[in-house]
Write a structure and sequence with these properties.
Length: 120
């Protein structure tokens, strides 16, 4: 009896492992990949799933969703990433990343693609 009570107490203290912080929509991620290729993000960044180019001016975006801060300054959230990829100088003054030709929807799709990279 005492063993059963102790086992129940131990199991009650266990937590489920945390789920993913962000689950991207597959259609949005596919549109994001197409947008990345169209505007040429690979000219500056190595991006998993993008064969060419694999630029080295900016950081590799492999494992992006696990980095602490976007551009070393912004909390790593999908909304912040979408705003940053659309117009980095406005979101983080002094950023060396230029503004892009992405619409708001396309920038959200790019964020969906980048956050989904770890699930592949």
């Amino acid at each position: 009896m005492a063993l059963s009570v102790m086992l129940c107490a131990c199991l009650a203290g266990c937590k489920q492992p945390p789920g993913p912080r962000y689950v991207p929509d597959e259609a949005a991620a596919a549109r994001g990949r197409a947008a990345i290729e169209r505007v040429g993000c690979g000219a500056c960044h190595a991006i998993p799933g993008i064969g060419w180019p694999k630029g080295r001016t900016g950081p590799s975006l492999d494992g992006f969703r696990d980095i602490g801060l976007i551009a070393g300054a912004l909390p790593n959230t999908p909304a912040n990433l979408a705003a940053f990829v659309r117009n980095a100088p406005r979101v983080k003054p002094g950023s060396t990343m230029p503004a892009t030709q992405l619409s708001e929807e396309e920038s959200r799709d790019v964020a969906a693609y980048l956050y989904g990279l770890d699930d592949e």
